[in-house]
Design a protein that fits this description.
four-stranded parallel β-sheet; 15 helices; Rossmann fold; binds iron/sulfur cluster; 12 strands; binds (~{Z})-2-methylbut-2-enedioic acid; 302 residues
Length: 302
């Protein structure tokens, strides 16, 4: 028997010509009702291509903002208006403007995990999938300020052997993964491959066989014969990994790497958001114009 909430969501989705987007870190039951599951940029790009009128973005606020900016003719709603990203909240546009005054010639690279207002103050955007490529495209004599994630920044700097200025931001959920967790699991599962997200701390990254974005983490088991994987990222990703590779085993580096903001969204709230057509996410046009340029700079290079 179909769950009545799932049925109601389907009815409302049809009625409003809506699509439901779910980030890779969402609860499994939300991923299962979604039209698309993916990373923040991929989802926004999918949304822009469809003829839907309404987008229900199950993720956190900066992701819904990106969708709103890339799909200006569609209405974007979030099931829970309090689902923010603590890392994105670690820098404001005013703080960034102040910092830029100290480094007048700096090129600001902002991770997609940032508010639209911070993107508007930046020169080029990046995701965890393309950060190294984006930074490598900037002439070597240019000074770079990387915001807000110091862990992703440090990872890119080490890949490129390049000095950068980092903002002191980080993801609390990824920083709960400790190298001890990974070492312990590896001793119990010596054949397992270790795959981690670059939002992890450098000591965790140093233990990894593969470092990748969520999309890259989902692809990785398909490209090798290993049966067991130790996964160092937000645990919502395990749902998709287990669905995609039912004959492989996925061990969270720690069950503590759970993002409480991502998990604010529930199936009931998805239904209510479609009932009440809220919470609508908009970006003021004067910010959106500048932030879209920052995103477009990235898309032109990828
Ligand atoms: O861009 C995204 O969706 C995030 C936050 C992570 C990733 O690696 O996909
Ligand atoms: Fe932000 Fe980390 Fe949660 Fe992603 S997992 S939304 S970066 S706090």
């Amino acid at each position: 028997m179909t769950d009545p909430i799932v049925e109601r969501i389907s009815e409302l989705r049809k009625k409003h010509n809506a699509i439901i987007l779910a980030h890779n870190y969402q609860r499994g039951e939300i991923q299962d009702v979604a039209d698309f599951v993916g990373d923040s940029l991929g989802l926004s790009q999918q949304a822009a291509k469809t003829d839907a009128d309404l987008i229900v973005f199950c993720g956190v606020h900066f992701m819904a903002e990106t969708a709103a900016m890339l799909c200006p003719d569609k209405t974007v709603i979030m099931p829970d208006e309090n689902a923010g990203c603590p890392m994105a909240a670690m820098i404001t546009a005013r703080e960034l403007r102040e910092k830029k005054k100290l480094y007048p010639d700096v090129t600001v690279v902002c991770y997609v995990n940032s508010t639209a207002a911070v993107k508007a103050e930046s020169d080029i955007c990046c995701t965890s999938a393309n950060a190294t490529k984006i930074v490598a495209s900037i002439p070597k004599d240019r000074e770079i300020l990387f915001v807000p994630d110091k862990s992703l920044g440090a990872y890119v700097a080490s890949c490129l052997n390049r000095k950068m200025i980092f903002w002191d931001g980080y993801c609390p959920s990824h920083h709960r993964i400790l190298s001890e967790h990974v070492v312990q699991l590896k001793s119990e599962h010596p054949d397992a491959k270790i795959v981690v997200h670059p939002e992890c701390t450098p000591d965790v990254i140093a233990l990894a066989d593969h470092v990748a974005s969520t999309t890259g983490i989902i692809k990785y088991p398909g490209s090798n014969h290993t049966k067991e994987f130790i996964v160092g990222t937000e645990i919502g990703i395990l749902h998709r990994l287990r669905q995609t590779y039912p004959d492989k085993t996925f061990l969270p580096a720690t069950p503590l790497s759970d993002c409480p903001n991502m998990k604010l969204n529930t199936l009931e709230k998805v239904m209510w958001s479609l009932e009440d057509l809220q919470f609508v996410v908009t970006v003021p046009e004067e910010i959106a114009v500048k932030a879209r340029k920052t995103i477009q700079q990235m898309l032109d290079l990828s």
